[in-house]
Design a protein that fits this description.
Blueprint lengths: L1 H19 L6 E9 L4 E4 L2 E5 L2 E6 L4 E6 L6 E9 L1 H19 L2 H18 L3 E4 L3 E4 L39 H17 L5 E15 L5 E14 L4 H9 L1
Parallel strand pairs: 1-8
Antiparallel strand pairs: 1-4, 2-3, 2-5, 5-6, 6-7, 9-10
Helix pairs in contact: 1-3, 2-3, 2-4, 3-4, 4-5
Length: 246
């Protein structure tokens, strides 16, 4: 419960700080070319240049490029944002591990990781645009297929449907907060515990004594004890942490 409360406070603080000092959204340059050249380029309905040219697009959202040339059919190209899950999570978890070890507080580590992930998504660092380049062969009006000539239509607005991609592309679902927190704590514990030597402790389990008189008249008292050495491998504690989160 205490960890949840601290996470809530840190999340609120992160939102407050982010509202006052938001980072700029990253962009990706997409080269665009057509055959023939000289087509007007529209990005999300806004004119941005002529082919051949380069369009700078924000990485935190998907886009539609529209290519328009007189006497040729309009072409719409979907530019998708693809979630770089492994890269984004790795950076977020590393940030959490550093923060958790520095403050010696698991809640701080988890909060830092979640803040890092949110920041990467907002700035577009967690995404990459695909395809990285556009090359289109324009179709003459009334050419292929014998269709009747039509005037170029207005640039299309961004659509909600994206082309199918193989596994690893597209909007991969985010890991659940509980699972993400578990991974942060596990990695943080592993990083911290591997910096120390295995714990060793000698525990006395029983003792006894006896007294006797030597032939010379001297009183002698002897004591004896048995002890057991116990060694703990710190890395094994990570499995315990994993069990606690399940």
């Amino acid at each position: 419960m205490k960890i949840c409360m601290r996470l809530a406070v840190m999340a609120g603080l992160a939102v407050f700080l982010a509202s006052g000092c938001s980072s700029p959204v990253l962009k990706q340059d997409i080269p665009v070319s057509t055959n023939p050249m000289g087509a007007r380029i529209y990005a999300n309905g806004q004119p941005v240049g002529m082919t051949p040219g380069t369009v700078s697009l924000e990485r935190n959202r998907s886009h539609i490029l529209t290519l328009v040339k007189e006497n040729y059919r309009q072409e719409d190209v979907v530019i998708e944002r693809l979630y770089q899950k492994d890269k984004a999570y790795l950076k977020a978890i590393q940030a959490g591990v550093r923060s958790g070890l520095f403050f010696k507080d698991a809640a701080m580590g988890v909060g830092s990781s979640m803040t890092s992930l949110s920041s990467q998504e907002e700035t577009g660092e967690a995404y990459i645009l695909y395809p990285p380049a556009v090359k289109v062969a324009l179709t003459p009006l009334g050419g292929i297929g014998g269709n009747d000539p039509v005037a170029p239509s207005a640039p299309s607005s961004p659509g909600a449907v994206s082309p199918d991609r193989s596994a690893g592309y597209g909007e991969a679902p985010r890991m659940a907060d509980k699972d993400f927190a578990r991974e942060v704590v596990k990695m943080g514990a592993g990083a911290a515990l591997t910096q120390v030597k295995p714990i060793g402790k000698k525990v006395e389990t029983s003792s006894s004594s006896r007294s006797y008189v030597t032939p010379g008249g001297t009183m002698v008292t002897e004591k004896s004890s048995t002890s057991v050495g116990v060694g703990i491998n710190p890395a094994g504690l990570v499995d315990v942490i994993d069990t606690l989160f399940k």
